[in-house]
Amino acid sequence: YTMKLSREFFNQKLYQKARETAEEILPLLDHESQVLTKNQKGNYYFLFSKILMQLGFFKEAVFYAEKAGSYFGQNNVLKSKAFLLISRGYFYNEELENSLGYVERLEGMNQSGESPDMNTVALLKAWYTFRTADYIASIKGLNNCFKLSGRHSEIALNGKMLELMNLLEMKDYGWFDYKLDSFRKYLSNFRPMGNSSRYKLIYQLFGQLKKYYIEGTEADGGRLLELIQLLSEKGKPYSWNPLGYELYPIQNWAQTKLP
User: What global pTM score does this model have?
Assistant: First the structure.
């Protein structure tokens, strides 16, 4: 019952309540061997890791995701989800090499036929190479991502966003208009489970950056700052989601691009 209630709070985005509820049973998990199966324990730790991720406790989230992975044993579908969560937590905590290590383990699982979520893995690796300033490798990785994901998926839309960020970092402006229009088309066809309001703000952000960096005209500094502020807000439909596909919050990156 406690796990069900914690999950309900999590689904309602009441993350602090979800955490408080989950913590009631955590001390029992390693001892109640006759009550819960290993997969049930793993799922509980996995849920708690996701709760901590949403609250911004990335180091702690990694710890519990690792515990989840240890309970999942040979269930490689569940283990791959735990590995993705671990890699994500290391990424947010700026431990990029550790993050990459889990990406490579996931790639190895795929080669042995254990089928983790390879489109998410490809996107994560593209974010890793972006954060380590290997922009050409990031773009090449995105090509793999586009092959694996459907045109209307959020992974593909996020990949288009990252493609634009790479081009701006490389100062490769020749393709920027074309890629920005491609992002717009993907956005117009996007049918998310939630809504696309964050990506609409991101499209406007790129429009402002285009004015300054490509057209050589004066960007609306006030609007640019407003967009960054909106994208930074918490608890809104357009807020950054630590469990989404945007592994590096674009507002943090945009701060480095202010005219």
Answer: 0.90
